[in-house]
Amino acid sequence: MKELSPKxxxxxxxxxxxxxxxxxxxxxxxxxxxxxISSTSVVDYNLRILEKNGLIRRDREVSRAIELLTPxxxxxxVVAVPIIGTIAAGQPIPVPTEETWSTYSEDVIxxxxxxxxxxxxxxxxxxxxxxxxxxxxNDGDIVVMEQTAAAADGEMVAAWLKxxxxxxLKKLYREGSRVRLQxxxxxxxxxxxxxxxxxxxxxxxxxxRVP
Length: 211
Description:
By secondary structure, the chain is an alpha+beta fold. The protein has helices at 6-22, 28-34, 40-52, and strands at 56-58, 66-68, 79-88, 107-111, 122-128, 142-146, 156-161, 166-175, 178-182, 191-194, 198-208. A 9-stranded mixed beta sheet has the order 4-3-5-6-11-7-8-9-10, with no helix packed on it. It has a two-stranded antiparallel ribbon with strand order 1-2. The longest helix has 17 residues, at 6-22. The chain starts with 5 loop residues before the first helix and ends with a strand.
């Protein structure tokens, strides 16, 4: 293996530190900004060298798919999580239909198994709106969901409103014959609806904050 240039070592160190802190790899743009590199093409050039030297592995078809390799060149295990669309953290908005929640994928993000708690039945959605900002879920973030119809009161869920044919990201509370879908934003009002109108599509496992 050729000795790394200072720039390549800086990139490798940043990737390692970023993954250690966030549990997922940085984007090309984040590498460019953090390492003060003139363009993303220069970042890509140096990543190719790191890849050639067996220090990283990349999947150019997958978002943020930069993986650190062990000294023996083995790939660290990851879980590929499909991003299936957008969900509202605000007023409900149309999303992929109930039948396509588990089959439609616009992208994939690879995460360490620990980040999804060893679960296999996970998917991700992009957040639109700011009704969950007090729960540290911002517009544009990605939430990783466990696909389940069961959720306890107070858990953050993807709630499918059957009559409206819309979904929303809220905290779920059962109140007799109705359900309260509570935003985490003091300026917004909860959504009240009949219990039979709500179907839980999943509950939040983790949030990936997007700069």
